[in-house]
Amino acid sequence: MKKWLLYLCVALLIVLPLSACSQEKVETINLAEVTHSIFYAPLYVAMAEGFFEEEGLDVKLTTTWGGDKTMTALLSDGADIALVGSETSIYVHAQGSNDPIINFAQLTQTDGTFLVSREKIDDFEWEQLKDSTFLGQRKGGMPQMVGEFVLKEHGIDPQTDLELIQNVDFANIPSAFASGTGDFVQLFEPTASIFEKEGTGHIVASFGTESGKVPYTTFMSKQSFLDENEEAAKKFTTAIYKAQQWVQEKSVKEIAESIAPQFEDTELELIETVVQRYKEQGSFATDPILDVEEWENLQNIMDEAGELPMRVDHETLVNTSFAEEVSSK
């Protein structure tokens, strides 16, 4: 009996430290996303295909519905990392933050919204928006700024040539259009395609193809978090890069099947249609590097919309060290 107890004690001495080490290797990351969209397919692929797990990370995802709410979550430590438009980091910087918000990995590189018309239009021309009611996105947010930028590129003044509605909360824009507000609306997927299938609206143009490359949504965090969790940030970026490469290599069907559990109420065929749209217009970034040209294009769009509080150098709010390191392997 004593011999058996001795063996048990020895076994516990061996197993318990190993168990503790195993637990230490898994780090929880609280991630807040600004909306839940097929536009963020590489993120969901990283979760579904186990790329975060391979890096020893347990990512807890929360949808915070809107740039202001997402940034509030990050600033109040309700999230470790936020997936949101890069413009939000500039707004925080302009307010004089002592702990700047740093963009460290890019997920999408074009606008992800589509112009949806209430009536079916076979040969759409941008001029048809004149004298219409346009249900836009939140003022100061990336979707709205890109929307106004594209309208101006087509000779439309969003303030005088149409009735621009901007006072609807981000999460309520689809339901507002469905209930009869607006002749046109700017929507993310899969909502745009769902509306088209239901006959609620019709996709007539893509803001992504019209606006060019821009760091539309990036992963960002407080400087203090990155300083204190450098290894975790690098592992997170590695998992995202693996997913970006996976998305580039796999078929639309394979991508759709991977992310389908994130969109249980959306038919697989519809998910495939949306993924195809985003792949064709190059919305999914092929690596997590946010370069200087994209950063400047972002600020040009903000400036055109009258929402740029100040010009900020790329190196001030962008850290590409993690992205460059994992992309070079």
From TrEMBL:
<comment type="similarity">
    <text>Belongs to the bacterial solute-binding protein SsuA/TauA family.</text>
</comment>
<feature type="signal peptide">
    <location>
        <begin position="1"/>
        <end position="22"/>
    </location>
</feature>
<protein>
    <submittedName>
        <fullName>ABC transporter substrate-binding protein</fullName>
    </submittedName>
</protein>
<dbReference type="Pfam" id="PF13379">
    <property type="entry name" value="NMT1_2"/>
</dbReference>
<keyword id="KW-0732">Signal</keyword>
